[in-house]
Amino acid sequence: MAASSTRRLIWLVVAATIGLALVVLPAPAALAQPSNDDFANATVIESLPFSTTEDTSQATFDPSDPSGCSSNGSVWFAFTPPSDMPIQADTFGSNYDTVLSAWTGTQGALDLVACNDDFSGLQSKIRFHATGGTTYYFMLARCCGNGGNGGGSLQFSVDQIPAPGNDDFADATTIASLPFSDAVDLFAATTQPGEPSPSCVGLPLQNTVWYAFTPATTQSLTARLDEGGLGLAVYTGSSLTDLTEVGCSQFPAPQPVVFRAQAGTTYHFQFGWWCCEGADPVVFSLEVTPNPVADFSFSPGDPSVFDTVQFQDSSSDPAGAGIASQTWDLGDGTTATGCCPTHQYAQDGDYTVELTVTTPDGRTASTSRVVHVETHDVAIVKMAVPNTAHVGQTIAISVYVRNTRYPDRVRVDLFKSVPGGFEQVGFLTQTVPVRRGDRTTRFAFTNTITEADRTMGKISFKATATILDHRDARPGDNDLTSPPVKIT
Question: For the whole model, what pTM was predicted?
Fold first, then answer.
């Protein structure tokens, strides 16, 4: 046989052998449904902590599955706690979008305890307080899918949530230095028998924890929480039976407790939910209370000896305790108390006014301002006009201004009477020096009599003086109207 024919024969035999092998290989086995695919076959959790991994890609939907949460491709677990305990269950590590729920009751008549989807992305987490002897059923399902089937690689864990280390008074967290801040999860915290009820709450707090601090120096301290719905109390004493309340806070919004702490005295801090559980964790902080910020204003800002000066406290307390009292030194030997005293100074000068404020817990702050009292006062004391005038005549009108305080630039506006009132006919500005006694400064005006003036029969002139650079202390004497001028 030729060599080429021999090679062809060998290849035909090999190909036939391979084809036969392909035909006789068995088909891969179909993936089975999870053993806990149905409620009735729930995997029993014997003890905690519990963790398992299983393939739920062939999990199915059962018509009896509850509809309170998604039931696509669900599997079931069951746990009966031997005693009351807080429980956390999660699907962290699963590779598909899980929905985790817990139920009590019987198949077809289940009551929802907790449900969660999309915690930290694809995984879910639930927490609840379990009652001893009650069976809890966990349904783990796919959030979305086609035909109600399938899941993926499921990682499921259940564990008891431990109580915080400072759950009891005797185990209070010792605060070594300030400022101090700590985040604590109150979900598994308990309330000890005999714990005091804060006066501002009126009923025992739930899920309480304790802290303790002994200051080395006497100082004001601020204790605060970052969540509302909590009660916070501060006590002195050495045991639950001999505690004395120092301060208390209970509001829907977070409110601090500010108190005066004595050196060497141990202060105990208790807080917990007063109505219902809120968000966790709760952040507790303790710090030295900053001093208040003293500030005040006064009006008018340029007082004279004729003014009653109104002072107004505008101090603030960054700690939120507020201002309890105000003490004033008004700078001229006079003192006052309260938020808003008034005072009249007897003579011009600079007066340093000092305000000292005190908070309810004894913190103080002071500030001072100079009140500059300067009295500017001019007055129109006389106007000189002729008794008679005729049409076309230019007459002289003299306005005399008195000033006994400070040299001032003064503007005098002159008005002439017209039917229904006065109209301006001129103005002059000049410096009015200080002149003692009855001496005055003259402002000299002229005015030409018109036919309209003759029609009226007589006219009057009115002058108004205005200090240009300062406020006039007594503007009421800055207007004067002349005797009438008869027009012939």
Answer: 0.74
